[in-house]
Amino acid sequence: MLYPNSHKPLYEQFKEIIVMRIANGEYRSNDLLSSEREFAEQFNISRVTVRQAISDLVKDGVLVRKHGKGTFVASGSKGIIENALGKLVGVVEELAYRNVKISVCLIEKSYETVSEDVAKKLKTNLEYRIFKVVRVVTDDVGPIAIDYSYVLENIGHLLDKSDLTKDIVYAILENYGYKISTADQNISAGSPSAYEANLLEIDGLAPVLVSERITFVEGRIPIMFNRSIYRADRYKYSLALKRYPLGIKSIQENVRH
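RESULT FIELD:
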């Protein structure tokens, strides 16, 4: 569904629909998409809006255009999932952008007393309750990640109305008017708990990647804390670096002899 009164442009909302259809398997690798005219009629939007969304997804490598044939879902890959750091997207959204056919299993959703650690991340008091969601993301090969999401109770009531096995959480919040802007993320190596090892179908001594992220709305107000546990043999991060040369004198001053 598109929301004409949302602060998010219609072409961005339409992009999210395409991405989610890829994520839930409705669109598969190499599938031919509907024409611009058909999409425009289906969603009651202009062809210009459809064209802009499709062009963005082609640039992102999610879709490919074939001259004289139409627009297709790009070929996906199995095995190791690679994330190029830099885009603020959620776990499900990120994997969908990689053209990975995934399924999301909702393990838990509950309202509970906030822990000291989560309270610190969300800058709230220990007296408040939070809404906790635990999901496991799997592809055709097997489990990829466990995602723990935490929001304050009032925001949790909004998420609780949605299908958390299909809907993009960031999109849900944005459609309710929350203007997500930035996030602080830390990535480290870790060891899974016995519970996590079982969900990920790995040995209890196997290494995992642990991503902790605090997402902010405008004004640097924290709205969500996520802790994601990835199988280290299924997932990796990549980062493009640009060199900014330092003066030789400043380097020499900081090198011990």
